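This section describes the prediction task in plain terms. A model, or a person checking by hand, is given the sequence of a single protein chain and must write out its three-dimensional structure as a string of tokens. No templates, partner chains or ligands are provided. The sample shown here is typical of the held-out split.
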Amino acid sequence: MGNPKVKVQSQVIDIVMECISLLFLSGTLVYTFWNYKQLPEIIPTHFGITSEPDQWGPKESIFILPGILILIYILFDIIIKQPHIYNYREKITDTNVVAMYRKTIRYLRLAKILISALFGSIIYNTVQIAHHEREKLNSEVIILIMLLIFLPLLLSRIKRAHFE
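The expected answer:
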């Protein structure tokens, strides 16, 4: 038996989070298209563990990350609109369904913000490196990656410790 289908009403924080992720997404797209013509024919396409480019390719490859970002954004929106399809660690009951769905939706919205910021930062750095304005990725890229990995775990631990 599947999880119950329950409509979770958006609160102000949900609207703010959606606006922030949409700003990062649209900013990334605008920045990419705005800078495309000025890019050299060959740009960095991959960065190694030292944050320095280790692969180069045609400037059209700048559109790969925005394409992936749009796909991730759409996928997350589908799950946000249908939280009952998500796999939950805890049993969903009539008493916890709204809280569990809301928590999941907010984690996904937070992930959308962080992923959009990460992709935007990588594209910004790629353009900067392509124009020889820097040699490697800025530290904010690494910070965003660490946030994507550890923030959900940290929030989960804090929430669990708060309720136990």
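For orientation: Residues 46 and 122 are 10 Å apart (CA to CA).
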